[in-house]
Write a structure and sequence with these properties.
The structure is a homodimer of 593-residue chains. With 593 residues, chain A is an alpha+beta fold. The radius of gyration of chain A is 30 Å and the shape is globular. Chains A, B: It catalyses: tRNA(Asx) + L-aspartate + ATP = L-aspartyl-tRNA(Asx) + AMP + diphosphate.
Chain lengths: 593, 593
């Protein structure tokens, strides 16, 4: 139907007769001539109709925004005065000869270039309009390029693309499952997978050696954060490879991806232990672009009487840490109050601070409500340890270590960003040597990753000191975002049973939930491991979008609904009967609940 | 962990020291030497341990089938007598130096080479064992090659890979939906998509121009045929392209796929109208490898008194057709009885036949229970029309046209296959010019494809003669299987409303079900169309598998269950309460249903 795409016309096409199809981005009438900006997915070109071609001029005159046109005309150079260097097609225009209206358009619910003036709800309701915006077009095109680059790499490395089921059994990731009632098995339900974890392990047991899948995953969680009920994972698993091998191949994949799609050479990926990341950044996914670090001062605070600091400093589970912000002395009292509230969200009960006004003046040159509680020599040692300079501010956290890390870790990002300290570019790293378990606060253990993660120690040590055991897990982090995480898996039945035991899953429950995995481990499971990347998050980072909703064609709202199709929706009684279920609401009405 | 893959070792590797990982396919003890067949996804290699290496010999001695090993040794040529030309690695063997047991294996539930002796249920329960069979490995590897070739082609042609939602609204394909209760919207349900049809149309309205997705689709149907609750579509849609363009590009894709994966050059794809396909083959997906055709004899049968034939011949909705099978006179009476029962499955009330024993003898040379009902000249004209020869048999169908076509169409395949008449190779074609609607037997119309298919006629004609209107749909058929089907879609609001009207969907219902589509058609929908291929079926055909279950890693049984993971399963009361539903079973027990 067309000879060229609008957005790709250039000076080289001058004098060509072209046929274009696209949408009217703008129509202007100027000096008796009609200018149409015709838009397709490749961009916009200006088409000019003058009154010479009477019939077509009349048609051009009545078209409106978002009409769909087919236009034939001749490409010509724009006059020097009208060249538009900000448009890729700005050196040329098309002199229209023929015009056909392929479809009309009612007045759009919002003008594409005024999308910010309407709420996100309107943009989601008319998603097909919002997706016409060049920015959205580019993001989804980038997403397509990303999946293509990933697939090309993995296929080239011998990974097989294997699909795993969507209608499956409840999976053990711990979040709430989406359920699907079975018609043929009354009273029973499928679950939508939270990840293909167990299936990919079974594919290794099956001998496929290298598997990948760009897989839909589902979690019925509250969507406070930037989450979606369905999201997409780049899911990878290999046999006969240790963590070094898996990290090497996936790092190469991400490096190649950035090169292919953004022409970016990522810097080296340093390896950092989980313990170091928590100590220095209060986070297991540190943003290394921010040149601020947490510094432990527990030993110093053991010398003060001030209970707020002394208590956590003496407590083996506590932590007192300082965060120095160079140049931060200009932060106002009001801003400090805001930061205090901010760290309160993470459980911190306050935010102590010291401003460094004049280092040469000793304690006199410092400004802080807490100085009066601390001996001068402790303050001096602390200032020395922190290497402060005039104009700095130091924030303090003192509490259980978990709270201090979360609060100061978050503050580090916030202050760093507010103060314009976030460096340019890309700062990737690997976080390694995670603990196997964390205290569930109830005398038991929960897995830090999932219960199929292999321990880095032997079985006896694992059983004796589960709290100290490290796992063979690894996370890839970029600019403070976890791109993906994985581990070497347990391939040995005895180890798997021991881990279930430590987690308080008795053999009967293990059999009931994971019987097929335990069986599979019996019949010759190879050593294996893998990794899963969050595709939505990778594309969001690469495209600079602010939310994963902006890199998903048809996302759900924060209440897990689609305002465009009005999903979820009601369902007839007959259909529910076939599925052997009934609404609870209904029952309430009849008073039998 | 390894230097080479087992199945890839060749004579060129002789004298290399290699480290291999894999499964023990077989262990033999012969003349004081241990032979291990070590298997990985690339094949099998023979490893030999002799008693020189005492410790490793002892280990090799205790390994059993399906143990996972790591073996280091030297590649050497086999002696001339022991070269095995049927194995790709058969010219060499590995003289084992070191052996490590990576994992043991209990006695397998079945020996891999004895899979046919256990039922499919056992193979599905231990699917991870069944998938170790080289045949299954090859099928899933072929599937991965197919998706890769398809993606590479479509990406190269500028199609964007865009994901559409799995949690969505009931879709209009007409089969039963799988439903997902919403936790955040009490009493409401998502549906799993039967296809991304409406989303891909909306992507065209969004201006993406060319879309593809290898998409999971879901239908909660009874699985009598070779169907699965979840299946995979290669889903394609383009804007500004007519049916010729879409058929050209998708034919090129399939041609390239067969070349890339099977090194097969598909022959030309003839175009055949739906009417011709039904007339000549009684099927809209004719297997052109079978050189048998239906021949209409209605005009001749209007001259006989025999009611069974005369009735349908006189009825404008009836049909009398003949199917000549060359050399079929040898078909026994018992076989004819079997065929009679077979066509009975398709609604035929009998199967008349005539055997041609001696053409020169006239009617005397024919053998048939129905000859007595027919005038000799009619028989003679018929024999002439059919071009029979001695030794042929002719079968007859007489009934409503639909039944005759289904019954004789199926018989054609069955007899053709039984008589060894199915030609070699690949016989693709396009079936075009489908009717828009079919009689729903209730005075109304149902769409032959779906209600978004564009008509080939103008609106006035469509409204006046819906039964005669043709659509702009097309199916790609290969060897009697529909590989895919598609159409140019309706992009015009008035046409869409007219089609809904003909289908008896009133404006309110249309608004309620498809409001978002009707809105989208208002705001500048481009001309567009596309096609969806059944990936499972394509891979089944290409791999020569007998069932789509053999080309799906983890398929469901005929009752839509997974016997390995035991899905679907029961769910706790608390979880159901969160989803605002209750089991009906439960209610019966408390007597309040």
């Amino acid at each position: 139907m067309r000879s060229h795409n609008c957005g790709l016309l250039r000076s080289a096409d001058i004098d060509e007769t072209v046929t274009l199809c696209g949408w009217v981005d703008r129509r202007r009438d100027h000096g008796g001539v009609i200018f149409l900006d015709l838009r397709d997915r490749d961009g916009i070109v200006q088409v000019v109709f003058d009154p010479d071609t009477e019939e077509h001029f009349a048609t051009a005159d009545r078209v409106r925004s978002e009409y769909v046109l087919k236009v034939t005309g001749r490409v010509r150079a724009r006059s020097e005065a009208t060249v538009n260097p900000s448009m890729p097609t700005g050196e040329i225009e098309v002199l229209g000869k023929e015009i056909e209206v392929l479809n009309t358009a009612a007045t759009p619910p919002f003008q594409l270039d005024e999308h910010t003036s309407v709420g996100e709800e309107v943009r989601l309701r008319y998603r097909y309009m919002d997706l016409r915006r060049p920015e959205m077009q580019q993001r989804l095109r980038l997403r397509s390029e990303v999946t293509d680059a990933v697939r090309r790499f993995l296929h080239g490395e011998g990974f097989l693309d294997i699909e795993t089921p969507i209608l499956t059994r409840a999976t053990p990731e711990g979040a709430r499952d989406y359920l699907v009632p079975s018609r043929t098995h009354p009273g029973q339900f499928f679950a939508l997978p939270q990840s293909p974890q167990l299936f990919k392990q079974l594919l290794m047991v099956s001998g496929f050696d290298r598997y990948y899948q760009i897989a839909k995953c589902f979690r019925d969680e509250d969507l406070r954060a930037d989450r979606q009920p369905e999201f997409t994972q780049i899911d990878i698993e290999t046999s006969f490879m240790d963590e070094a091998g898996i990290m090497e191949i996936t790092e190469r994949m991400v490096r190649g991806l950035f090169k292919a799609v953004l022409d970016v050479d990522l810097p080296d990926f340093p390896h950092m232990t989980w313990a170091e990341a928590m100590e220095r950044f209060g986070s297991d996914k540190p943003d290394l672009r921010i040149p601020l670090e947490l510094v432990s001062v527990d030993d110093l605070m053991q010398q003060v009487d001030f209970k707020v600091f002394r208590g956590p400093a003496d407590d083996p589970l506590g932590r007192v840490a300082a965060l120095k912000v160079p140049g931060g002395a200009s932060i106002s009292r009001k801003e400090i109050d805001d930061y205090t509230r901010y760290v309160g969200n993470y459980g911190a009960r306050g935010l102590a601070w010291i401003k460094v006004n004049d280092l040469a003046a000793g304690v006199e040159g410092l400004q802080s409500p807490i100085l009066k509680f601390m001996p001068e020599d402790v303050v001096a040692s602390m200032m020395e340890r922190l290497g402060v300079a005039n104009g700095d501010i130091v924030f303090f956290g003192a509490d259980r270590a978990g709270i201090v890390n979360e609060a100061l870790g978050a503050l580090r990002i916030k202050v760093g960003s507010d103060q314009g300290l976030v460096g340019d570019g890309w700062a990737p790293l690997w976080v390694v040597d995670f603990p196997m378990f964390e205290d569930d606060g109830d005398g038991g253990w929960t897995p830090l990753h999932h219960p199929f993660t292999a321990p880095a120690c032997d079985l006896a040590t694992l059983r004796e000191h589960p709290g100290e055991a490290l796992s063979r897990a690894y996370d890839m982090v970029l600019n403070g975002t976890e791109l993906g995480g994985g581990s070497v898996r347990i391939h040995n039945l005895e180890t798997q049973e021991a881990v279930f035991d430590i987690l308080g899953i008795d053999p009967e429950e293990a059999r009931e939930k994971f019987g097929f995995l335990l069986d599979a481990l019996k019949y010759g499971a190879p050593p294996h491991g893998g990794l899963a990347f969050g595709l939505d998050r990778i594309v969001m980072l690469m495209s600079g979008a602010a939310s994963i909703r902006d890199v998903i064609a048809f996302p759900k709202t924060q209440t897990a609904a689609c305002v465009m199709t009005e999903a979820p929706g009601t369902v007839g009684a007959a259909q529910l009967r076939e599925l052997h279920i009934r609404l609870r609401e209904q029952e309430k009405k009849t008073g039998d609940s």
